[in-house]
C-alpha cells in the first residue's frame, strides 16, 4: 500500500471528526502519541508495559487502518484513531483521562508558506490540557531547533503546564520511557542533536 508522507492538515476534509474512538480503557492508564505514523513506538511501549492502553492519533487514514489491523493480529493494547489532533482531542478522550502524551519528531514543514501546518502550537497545548489528567506527563522531542522553540513557547505560555526541567528549559534527562521512535533512533545513530521538553499537567 502506498502511504503519503505528508498531508495538508488545514484541508477542509479533516475539519470534521470521522474516526473510530478507542475502546474503553477499563481503568488502565492511557498513553497517546500524536502523529503516530505506523505506531512502532506505541507497539514497543505496549510490549514493555502491557497493562496500559496506547492510542495513536494519525491524520493519514491508511496508516490508521494498518495500525489497527496489526494490533488485532497481535492482540496488542494499541489503537489508532484517524483525526486532526488540534481539533478533535476532546472528541476522542474524556476530560482528565489521559496519563501521558508523546509528540515524537513532528513534521517540520520548513517552507515559509507551509508553517501554518505545523502541529505543536497553542491550540494543541490547549487540547492536551483539556484531556490530560492531573500530573499527566507530556513529552515532546524534535531534531529541528525552530520546532523545539515553538513547542516550548506553546507550553510555557499555557499556565496549565509545569516544566519538569525548569521554566523555559529543555529536558536533559534523555528519553526515560524505554523505547525510541524511528526518527529518534535515526538521529542518534547519525550523530544529530535532539531537543526534548517534558511537562507536568497542573490543571
Compile the SSE list and pairings.
Layout: E1 30-34, H1 40-48, E2 53-58, H2 61-74, E3 78-82, H3 85-92, E4 98-104, H4 122-131, E5 132-142, H5 145-156, E6 161-163, H6 182-189, E7 195-201
Parallel strand pairs: 1-2, 1-4, 2-3, 4-5
Antiparallel strand pairs: 5-7, 6-7
Helix pairs in contact: 3-4, 4-5
Written overview of the protein:
The protein has 203 residues and is of the alpha/beta class. The protein has one domain (28-201): Vaccinia Virus protein VP39 (Rossmann fold). Helices cover 30% and strands 22% of the residues. The chain has 6 helices and 7 strands, in the order E-H-E-H-E-H-E-H-E-H-E-H-E. It has helices at residues 40-48, 61-74, 85-92, 122-131, 145-156, 182-189, and strands at residues 30-34, 53-58, 78-82, 98-104, 132-142, 161-163, 195-201. A 7-stranded mixed β-sheet has the order 3-2-1-4-5-7-6, sandwiched between helices. Helix 2 links the parallel strand 2 and strand 3. The chain is globular, with a radius of gyration of 16 Å.
Amino acid at each position: 500500500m502506498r502511504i503519503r508522507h505528508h498531508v495538508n492538515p488545514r484541508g477542509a476534509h479533516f475539519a470534521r471528526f470521522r474516526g473510530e474512538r478507542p475502546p474503553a480503557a477499563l481503568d488502565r492508564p492511557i498513553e497517546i502519541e500524536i502523529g503516530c505514523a505506523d505506531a512502532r513506538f506505541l507497539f514497543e511501549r505496549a510490549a514493555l508495559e502491557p497493562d496500559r492502553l496506547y492510542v495513536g492519533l494519525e491524520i493519514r487514514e491508511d496508516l490508521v487502518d494498518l495500525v489497527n489491523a496489526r494490533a488485532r493480529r497481535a492482540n496488542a493494547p494499541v489503537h489508532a484513531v484517524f483525526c486532526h489532533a488540534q481539533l478533535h482531542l476532546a472528541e476522542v478522550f474524556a476530560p482528565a483521562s489521559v496519563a501521558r502524551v508523546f509528540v515524537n519528531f513532528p513534521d517540520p514543514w520548513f517552507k515559509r508558506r507551509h508553517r501554518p501546518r505545523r502541529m505543536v502550537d497553542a491550540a494543541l497545548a490547549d487540547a492536551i490540557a483539556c484531556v490530560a489528567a492531573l500530573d499527566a506527563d507530556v513529552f515532546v522531542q524534535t531534531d529541528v531547533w525552530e520546532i523545539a522553540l515553538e513547542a516550548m513557547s506553546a507550553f510555557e505560555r499555557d499556565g496549565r503546564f509545569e516544566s519538569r526541567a525548569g521554566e523555559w528549559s529543555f529536558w536533559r534527562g534523555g528519553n526515560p520511557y524505554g523505547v525510541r521512535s524511528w526518527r529518534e533512533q535515526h538521529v542518534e545513530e547519525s550523530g544529530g542533536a535532539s531537543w526534548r521538553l517534558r511537562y507536568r499537567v497542573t490543571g
